Fold:
Amino acid sequence: MLKQICCFLFAAFLSVSLLAQDSNLPYSNEVNAFRKLDSATRPPKNAILFIGSSSFTKWTDVQEYFPDRPVVNRAFGGSSLPDLINHVDAIVLPTRPRQILIYCGENDLAASDTVSAQLVFTRFKTLFGLIRAKLPQVSIAFVSIKPSPSRRKIWPRARQANALIKQWLKTKQRTDYIDVYYKMFYKNGNIMQDIFIEDDLHMNAKGYAIWQKAIEPYLLKK
Structure:
């Protein structure tokens, strides 16, 4: 019990001490809200942590899709890999998860035609290194960049970035690559339009059901 209390107090102290460090960074308001939440309510033990951009952020009922596992969602919409890198301590360390799922990179590619698959790969490796430096035993899974209909022009770079990350993760322990890209097409090669909401970017329940089926086999058991 004493050890648990000490861990909780440390998380609260860490949250406050980090607050002053990055208050001027993009998404600081969203991240500060996470800090307050973690300080007020201790995250569940051995949680599976979801971090990344809006495809995770908007999965507000993600716990219902995986009811037998403790899930914590710390994704913030619109974020790119540099944003996760900037806020990695604040969104990862307080939770002390046993597994981390990352969905990010799509916004990087959409931000500019000059953002290459190689750059996304490099950014991902930086994020991965920062996480493993603090949590060397944590399991890390990358959920592939999805084929959003509104962003067809980035599909070739998305496939390249996915392939680079997939191959690299094979060289690392306690990692997984989770493909959702190809699962969002019909067998005839057409994208499943009905799994997206009106903006052709974010998914509806049908889309998340596909992700649930793809992700479930990779989640660590209790």
In short: Confidence is low (pLDDT under 50) at residues 1-21. The first strand starts at residue 48 and ends at 52.
